[in-house]
Design a protein that fits this description.
alpha/beta; six-stranded mixed β-barrel; 31% helix; 18% strand; globular; binds iron/sulfur cluster
Length: 692
């Protein structure tokens, strides 16, 4: 039996895993002693590999290239040569007719790895000639990237997953780690065991709230008001670090002015938390020797998310909880390689290594390395994936090349997304399973899966980690970056790479932040956190050492603004608030975990609507009853899960269920900066089936 060094592909915790292989088949997975997981795995890591061996592989997996010769025709299996020729020709026709900006691409935040994401953004920029490349960070932690880049200078966790357990105070805001990152949740428990104070802000009494020293059940959609009240308290009670603020931050006077009306006494009605509790939480946070703020999508999936991220970083700046061990700001990224996709420039405003596309010097460097004329690199920021439905309906986007994403399952307001797809001339899907989006494609390019190729992922704490190929792929499939290279070559830009390492060396040459993280150094269980700027560096466990921020002035920016209520409030017709949530046994659109026998049997129906018992009783709805859930955009069936841990005003649904997808109901009210949709809040109602 061989043990192959890998990294679990199911969340940003970055757990190192051994895939045990016998006779060309994976027979089990076991936790390896990685930096973030120390030998532990959750159930997805332990059981999330069986689709790689499964006998149903050749029917469930995409295993041959396929094209539709015209709209509405059936898929036809073709050779790779024909699939590449067909795709290249269509993309070239669209570019010639409508211009380069009419084509949109996605990278993937999932199992494909950093090398492929680098090659995909290179394809968009050097071959198509636009910056229209994006990834699902847009619908999750896009606001964390945008907000932290502005206030601190880096759009990432400032600390390390391993360091969380040594903080004296964990301030957990809109982050259900027990379901989204179980191994990070263990760090929270360890911190508690070591004596840390834990404060949880969440409308649901999530698992972490049950072990918290203080639980603040804020009303849905009031994050900005509460964060402002926290900042007000720190200043009002002189709990902030005046020397730190004077020396290392800017904007204090304007910040204070913005907070004027946010005394806890003024906002307690809005947020639903007594002023005394708000003040108590800030005393705990400010008086701890070291404190860390952690957040998840309860912060980022709102129309005012970037402002809230900036506000949270302000609390850390006020109290000096940055730039040293055991403190920091921690947006814990969801998908396993969403940090990596952003690192690799699968963003419409950034080249790899967070280098701006609007900077002439940076464009010149990339043009020279890629051997293309400077003018070929677009100086304008490209489109975001959440804008595509609108742009397609307006006729501005005509072709969509989607790699390892499933927008027809995961994007907000699916009827709008479907209209956008209907307006597109040409859709290419490169994936491992027949997702809802793949079903609508004109071309299917089947690729290898995690387990069938190696590469580098970046986990949520900026840590690069290598994962290796465990078994040979079955079917007529190719590595993602090889497919993109074939297309680029067919379109007149010769591209060929012999190995992951060759691509990674190009990344390192172009990105000062990553230069020191060589393939060799990343062997085995290594975990190297960027910045890693020189060959002797072991990486950076925490950012902003010496309180030097990567902002233009070198200072941290304090930011507060006025709270805006969510876009669609409950009313007589739709009296409940609908919020999307996660299911611990499944991942993302569920295409991978839903095809794992073990995980499917643990949660074979991960679609439910959580209701408070009081509300369910009033409506005469029983636990486990199938009900209608409806919003202004759609209506789906779901099983009712009566749950005492949630608040009475809201209902909660997972987005992973194929039947009755809750994104039929969500809305695409986008944050104005990050363009992230407000999937944590819309008006909805629940009715009994027999009432219809
Ligand atoms: Fe995989 Fe995340 Fe579970 Fe670790 S915590 S085993 S990375 S799903």
């Amino acid at each position: 039996m061989n043990k192959i060094n890998s990294v679990c592909p199911y969340c940003g915790a970055g757990c190192k895993i051994n895939l045990c292989v016998e006779n060309g088949k994976i027979i089990k997975a076991e936790g390896a002693n990685g930096v973030t997981n120390q030998g532990e795995l959750c159930l997805k890591g332990l059981y999330g590999w069986d689709f790689l061996n499964d006998n149903k592989l050749l029917t469930a997996r995409l295993h041959e290239p396929m094209i539709r010769r015209q709209k509405g025709a059936d898929f036809e299996i073709v050779s790779w040569d024909e699939a590449i020729r067909f795709t290249a020709q269509k993309l070239q026709e669209i570019k010639a007719q409508y211009g380069a900006k009419a084509i949109m691409c996605t990278g993937s935040s999932r199992g494909t790895g950093n090398e492929t994401n680098f090659v995909m953004q290179k394809f968009a920029r050097a071959v198509l000639g636009n910056n229209n490349v994006d990834c699902c960070a847009r619908v999750c932690h896009g606001p964390s990237v945008a907000g932290l880049q502005e206030t601190l200078g880096n759009g990432a966790m400032s600390n390390s997953i391993a360091d969380i357990e040594d903080s004296d105070c964990l301030f957990v805001f809109g982050y259900n780690c027990a379901d989204s990152h179980p191994i990070v949740a263990r760090r929270v428990i360890k911190a508690k065991q070591k004596g840390a104070k834990i404060v949880v802000c969440d409308p649901r009494k999530i698992e972490t709230a049950k072990i918290a020293d203080q639980y603040l059940p804020l009303k849905n959609g009031t994050n900005m008001a509460l964060v402002n009240a926290f900042a007000y308290t720190l200043i009002d009670e002189e709990l902030y670090d005046k020397n730190y603020v004077n020396q290392y931050t800017e904007g204090f006077e304007e910040y204070k002015k913005q907070l004027e009306n946010y005394s806890p006494e003024n906002v307690q009605e809005i947020v639903g938390i007594p002023a005394i509790e708000i003040r108590k939480a800030m005393r705990t946070y400010a008086n701890a020797k070291t404190a860390t703020i952690m957040w998840g999508m309860g912060v980022t999936q709102f129309g005012q998310a970037v402002d809230v991220v900036k506000g949270l970083s302000g609390l850390a700046l006020l109290t000096g909880n940055l730039g040293k061990p055991h403190v920091g700001v921690a947006p814990v990224r969801g998908q396993n390689n969403v940090q990596g996709a952003c690192d690799m420039g699968v963003l419409p405003n950034m080249f790899p290594g967070y280098q701006s596309v609007t900077d002439e010097g940076i464009r010149s460097k990339f043009a020279s390395e890629w051997n293309i004329p400077f003018e070929q690199l677009d100086p304008e920021v490209g489109y975001r994936i959440t804008e595509v439905p609108h742009l397609a309906i307006e006729g501005k986007v005509k072709a969509y090349y989607i790699m390892g994403e499933d927008p027809l399952q995961t994007e907000a307001d699916l009827s709008l997304v479907r209209k956008g797809f209907e307006a597109l001339d040409f859709v290419v899907v490169q994936d491992i399973f027949m997702t809802k989006t793949a079903e609508q494609a004109d071309v299917i390019l089947p690729s290898t899966s995690w387990g069938e190729h190696g590469g580098i992922f970046t986990c949520a704490d900026r840590g690069f980690q290598r994962f290796e190929k465990a078994i040979d792929a079955k079917g007529n499939v190719k590595r993602d970056w090889e497919i993109i290279s074939l297309l680029a070559t067919e379109m007149g830009y010769p591209m060929s790479y012999a190995s992951n390492e060759e691509i990674w060396d190009e990344v390192r040459r172009l990105c000062p932040l990553f230069f020191g993280a060589t393939y060799k150094k990343l062997e085995g269980l290594a975990h190297i956190q960027w910045p890693c700027t020189d060959i002797d560096s072991e990486g950076t466990p925490y950012l902003y050492s010496g309180n030097q921020f990567n902002t233009p002035s070198g200072k941290g920016k304090l930011f507060a603004t006025q709270w805006r209520p969510p876009a669609e409030l409950p009313d007589n017709d739709y009296p409940m608030i609908l919020s999307t949530v996660r299911e611990v046994g499944h991942y993302s659109c569920r295409s991978m975990t839903g095809n794992c026998k073990a995980l499917a049997s643990l949660a074979d129906e991960p679609g439910y609507v959580q209701m408070h018992p009081t509300i369910a009783k009033k409506a005469g709805i029983r636990d486990q009853e199938i009900v209608w859930v409806e919003s202004r955009r759609g209506k789906v069936m779901s099983r009712c899960n009566i749950n005492e841990t949630i608040n009475e005003q809201a209902i909660y649904m997972t987005y992973q269920w194929w039947i009755g997808a809750c994104n039929e109901l969500t809305q695409d009210n986008l944050d104005p900066i990050s363009k992230t949709p407000e999937t944590k809040y819309c008006a909805a109602k629940v009715t009994k089936i027999d009432d219809q």
